[in-house]
Every structure is written in structure tokens, then in C-alpha cells.
Amino acid sequence: MPSWELEREAMSQGCGAVCGCDEAGAGPLAGRVYAAAVILPDGLDLPWLDDSKQVTEKRREALYDQITAQAAAWSVAWVEPGEIDQIDILNSRMKAMQLAIDGLEPKADFALIDGNRDHGSRCAIVTPHKTIVKGDSLSMSVAAASILAKVSRDRYMKEMAAVYPQYEFECHKGYPTKRHYQLLREFGPCPIHRRTFLKKL
Predict the structure, then answer these.
(1) Quick check: 21 and 101 in contact, CB under 8 A?
(2) From residue 195, how far is each of 65, 86, 116, 176, 181 by CA, in Å?
(3) Is residue 65 within 8 Å of residue 56, measured between CB atoms?
(4) d(Cα 6, Cα 179) in Å, to the nearest integer?
(5) How far apart are CA 43 and CA 5, in angstroms?
(6) Could you give the CA distance from residue 42 to residue 27 in angstroms, rounded to a whole number?
(7) Where do the H-state alpha helices sit in the chain?
(8) Which residue of 50, 127, 133, 160 lies most exposed, with the fewest beta carbons within 10 A?
(9) 103 touches 77 (CB < 8 A)
(10) Distance (Å, rounded) from C-alpha 194 to C-alpha 12?
(11) ∠ CA 54-56-58 to the nearest 5 degrees?
């Protein structure tokens, strides 16, 4: 379960505002990649908060509302599918995370970044930071960011399901499921498909 240890360690070294940052949607064949950054009040109690993949959809939605209501600052950003094809998914993830951090008000002095990568060939995290493998299961603020990123992306994919109903995006959220491939072969790609991800067609 996430704790406050990493945030407090950074604050003990002089960082006033520490944010957690995570992204959602690196693997899908369609749609944007999202990122969120969150600064939580120290010690805030959020029951059920965990890595978004460990939380049910209903709880994620409830946590989204709690986090956005109680965070000292929060921000969500994304990179569009066309740009993912242009600059690749690693650069897109880094760009989305830095955009989310830049969107915080008040600003963060330091960022806890989920994962082990902080730069691609063209985009990088430039805010002072630390990368943490499985950060969304270790840090409260990274876990909060994982919830905001995941819920924001899921909501967007449900909107896209209404625009492109033949792909059933509301079910698989753009991920490479057997059914999604089946529908892609039947209908071909739509404008939000990532062309560079469609090698298997």
C-alpha cells in the first residue's frame, strides 16, 4: 500500500511542494496517452487509494472526486494519437507527464515519477525529480496521480466510443484485445488509432 515515506523524505531535504506523477494509456492501439500530477496535503487520509490497476472502476471514480476536491493542486494532460505516431510513445509519455507537472498551481518543487524512465530522445522530465519503480503502489501522491490519469483516459475513451461506436472502445478502452483486433480487421483504423501500433494487422 502507498505511504507518505517518499514525499516526507523529499520534504526533509528542503522541498516545499512534492507532487506525484503517473501516466495511463501507453499500451493501447487507440487514443491519447494521459498523465496526471498531484500535490496532496501531507497526511491526507484517502481510504482505498492504491495503484489504479488495483482499484475497481467504481472506487476509482469515487477516489477521483475525493482527490480533485482535496488535493493542494492537481493537473491532467495528454498527447494526441497523431503526435504519438510522430514522436513515439516514450517521448509522448514524458511530454504528457511534464505538461501535467507544468499545469500545477501552486507549482511543485520536486516530482516523484512512476517508473524508471525520465527522458526519451526528444522529451524529458525537467522538473527536479526522482523515478520510482512501482511508485503508484509506494507513494500516496503517485497513486493519486495514477487514479486521475486512468479515470481521465477512461472517460475520454467512453466519449470516443460514442463517436466511433463500431470499435466498442467503452469495453476495451483501446487496448490490444482479441476483440479490438477483430474489429480493426473488419472496419480498418479510425482517426484516433495509433498507426505505428498497428503492425499486426
Answers:
(1) yes
(2) 34, 10, 26, 13, 13
(3) no
(4) 40
(5) 10
(6) 32
(7) 5-12, 57-70, 81-87, 89-102, 140-163, 169-172, 178-187
(8) 133
(9) yes
(10) 43
(11) 150
Provide the grid cell at 182: 477483430
Residue type, 156: Y
Q: Which three cell numbers stand for residue 111?
A: 516530482
Residue type, 32: R
Do residues 1 and 138 lie in contact, with contact meaning Cβ atoms separated by under 8 Å?
A: no
What is each CA distance from 178 to 67, 98, 119, 172, 185, in whole angstroms?
A: 34, 33, 32, 10, 11
* Secondary structure letter of residue 41 according to DSSP: P
Count other C-beta atoms under 10 Å from residue 5's C-beta.
11
Helix pair 140-163, 57-70: axis angle to 10 deg? 120
- CA–CA dist 36, 99 (Å, integer): 9
pLDDT band at 43 (very low <50, low <70, confident <90, very high): very high
Q: How far apart are CA 195 and CA 163, in angstroms?
A: 19
Q: Which residue has the cell 514522436?
A: 87
Specify whether the CB–CB gap between 33 and 115 falls below 8 A.
no
Partner residues linked to 21 by β-bridges: 37, 113
Q: pLDDT digits over 120-169, tens only?
A: 999 999 999 999 999 999 999 999 999 999 999 999 999 999 999 999 99
Mean pLDDT of the chain, nearest integer: 96
Using CB atoms within 10 Å of the CB of residue 175, give its burial: 0 to 12 exposed, 13 to 18 middle, 19+ buried: middle
